[in-house]
Design a protein that fits this description.
Length: 226
């Protein structure tokens, strides 16, 4: 998924790069966390230099080369994520941040960068009415966020669940109601309404079957009485 080339997101990140804001919220990792060979040190330095100059495409190439030689470098994952983010390639950015977090699960910098990218992706998915995918992204943000920030995200999720349920009600389909309940068994208000709808439909179907059997049985009795 590639979005508006060098849009607002890219402009903000490029400003961080150009100004050399190593301590900015979306900071780059400019120092390796373990000793490297001379070749890898030079490769790390070249990649860092290109990203500091805002030369995104060449920096991406160099970091990918570095990552091939050092697959467990969370710094390379973080920097690639930010560069792809600046290049409006949100899916690739999210992938690298996720890979980085697998290497450093407690790294707050990576968490913040991933949350930022997920928020952008979820907003675009919501705009495209891809509500299930947007909810999945927001749920991941809840997992990564501190308790005080979770409530606001959970309200967003509930609002999107409302949108999904509106579509379900329009469908008037047993399958769609059941699918909704499977995905969102605890959606406030919506899940209970879905269960009640299914229950009433099943009752109506059962009564209809009984009435059908009864009507089939009555003519046979009339024939026997003759």
């Amino acid at each position: 998924m590639k979005f508006f080339k060098f849009g607002v997101i890219g402009f903000i990140i490029l400003n961080f790069i150009a100004l050399g804001c190593a301590k900015a919220p979306g900071q780059f990792s400019d120092t390796p966390s373990w000793s490297l060979s001379k070749f890898d040190q030079e490769l790390f330095a070249r990649a860092t230099l290109h990203q500091q100059k805002g030369q995104i495409d060449s920096a991406i190439v160099l970091w990918n080369k570095f990552l091939q030689r050092n697959p467990n470098s969370f710094e390379a994952r973080n920097n690639l994520g930010l560069l792809y983010y600046a290049n409006d390639e949100i899916v690739q950015a999210i992938d690298h941040f996720n890979q980085g977090l697998k290497l450093r699960p407690r790294e707050n910098q990576l968490k913040m960068n991933l949350v930022r990218a997920l928020k952008v992706q979820s907003a675009i998915l919501e705009e495209n009415r891809e509500y299930d995918e947007a909810i999945a992204g927001l749920s991941r943000i809840v997992e990564l966020s501190p308790a005080k920030a979770q409530e606001a995200i959970e309200r967003q999720i509930e609002a999107l669940e409302d949108q999904v349920f509106k579509q379900v009600k329009k469908s008037d389909s047993m399958g769609e109601y059941q699918k909704f309940l499977k995905k969102y068994p605890r959606s406030p208000g919506n899940s209970d309404e879905a269960r009640l709808w299914i229950e009433n439909k099943l009752k109506a179907k059962k009564m209809g079957n009984q009435e059908s059997l009864s009507s089939d049985f009555q003519p046979s009795l009339a024939t026997e009485s003759r």
